[in-house]
Amino acid sequence: MTTWRCVTQCGACCHLQPGDRPELEDYLTPEELRQYLSLVGEDGWCVHFDHSSRKCTIYEQRPLFCRVTPENFKRMYAVEAEEFNEFAIDCCQQQIEAVYGEESPEIDHYNQEIGF
User: Fold this and answer.
1) Least C-beta-crowded within 10 Å: which of 97, 98, 114, 116?
2) 39-70: pLDDT as tens digits
């Protein structure tokens, strides 16, 4: 079984463009939604994303909804723990392809790193 993990220097999840995520209200609380929208920069990227390093500048203090854990995915998406890895990997792949493209070096790197 392939295990989900974050791949460094990707950052696709930091592209927060609300128009690309119309279902935000379905899985974020009203307070989380306000916080989420406050993080979206003019370019659609999180204001805490460093484009040169492709890293979060507040990683240790990032909001709960930015943390990919079985507990959060159960709360937000009703995904059971045994489905977490497959679901999280699929989410990452979809987001990477949407942000960088289906034939991008980023999706190739992600798939290689997780052993896909």
Assistant:
1) 116
2) 999 999 999 999 999 999 999 999 999 999 99
Residue with tokens 């119309």: 22
The CA distance from 38 to 59, in Å, is 17
> Quick one: which of 55, 93, 87, 48 has its CA closest to 69?
87
Decide if pLDDT at 1 tops 80. Answer: no
Q: Which helix (DSSP H) or strand (DSSP E) does residue 86 occupy?
A: helix 84-100
76: containing domain: 12-114
pTM, two decimal places: 0.91
Domain assignment of residue 5, yes or no:
no
The count of structural domains within the chain is 1
Task: Choose among 69, 93, 89: nearest CA to 81.
Answer: 69
DSSP letter (8 states) at residue 44: S
Say if 38 falls within a structural domain: yes
Q: How far is CA 88 from the centre of its chain?
A: 9
